[in-house]
Amino acid sequence: MPTTMLLRKLEQVMVLSESERQTISELPERVLHVKPREDIVDTSRPTSVRLIRTGIACRYTLLGNGHRQITAFLVPGDFCDLRALIMGDMDHAVSALGPCELAVVPHHRLFAAIKDHPRLALAFWSDTLVDAAIHRDWVANVGRRSAYERMAHLLCEIWFRLKSVGLSMDHSFELPATQGDLGDATGLSQVHVNRTIGKLREDGLIRLSKGRVVQLLDWERLTEVAEFDPAYLRVPKLNGG
């Protein structure tokens, strides 16, 4: 089912009726396969919303000097461009880090679903509130944490978000990101990223394999280093009535 991960996310914040679940399941018009490093969304005016089914992508802003700032990583169950449903255009781009499979939902289908089931607007709004919370935490991460702390925090967040949609239960996950990607996400040079990851490995907190599989070896210590509190990744459960 193309919307399985989305349903997992939404049902963490509110109880959906069987009719609402069915409506969400029937939203996608087609499935799109995107190659690694290919843009999923640019800064144009999309007429469809893209939902990540598999893979990891990133939101990014490209500066005039060619430098890129990654502002979020997107995992299965995340919308890439829900903003454009209301705002019309995108103020940033989204790119696939590795191979991604996307469910494509035309705007008119989403509007029709909300018209027939008004509570879905609340569910989708809750999703944008979590996005906003992630952005705020990333600002704090880049602005006030040390390189060691911010890298630890980033890895904690990615694993926790994958776990919340049932994709990682053993403190390991595949992260198809280069050191350049991690630097663009944390405001560090590639040299500094390499040094920071090396320190996390030396301290017995993480292990990296050649297949870009990250293992979090000591979750308790890693969260202490990062001061990671996952509360910002969820909103209080809403009444199902």
Q: Order of helices and strands, N to C?
A: HHEEEEEHEEHHHEHHEEH
Helix content: 40-55%
Largest sheet: 4 strands, antiparallel
Number of strand elements:
10
Shape: globular
How many helical elements?
9
Q: What structural class is derived from the secondary structure elements?
A: alpha+beta
C-alpha Rg, in Å? Answer: 18 Å
Uncertain stretches: 235-241
CATH architecture identity of the largest domain: Sandwich
The portion of residues forming beta strands comes to 15-25%
What's the number of structural domains?
A: 2
The CATH homologous superfamily of the largest domain is called Jelly Rolls
First and last CA, distance: 26 Å
CATH class designation of the largest domain: Mainly Beta
Briefly note the CATH topology name of the largest domain.
Jelly Rolls
Characterize the structure shown.
The strands form 3 sheets. A 4-stranded antiparallel sheet has the order 2-6-4-5. A 3-stranded antiparallel sheet has the order 1-7-3. The chain has a 3-stranded antiparallel sheet with strand order 8-10-9. It has 241 residues and is α+β, with helices and mostly antiparallel strands. It folds into 2 domains: 4-136, Jelly Rolls (Sandwich), CATH 2.60.120; 145-233, Winged helix-like DNA-binding domain superfamily/Winged helix DNA-binding domain (Arc Repressor Mutant, subunit A, Orthogonal Bundle), CATH 1.10.10. It contains 9 helices and 10 strands. The model is unreliable at 235-241 (pLDDT under 50).
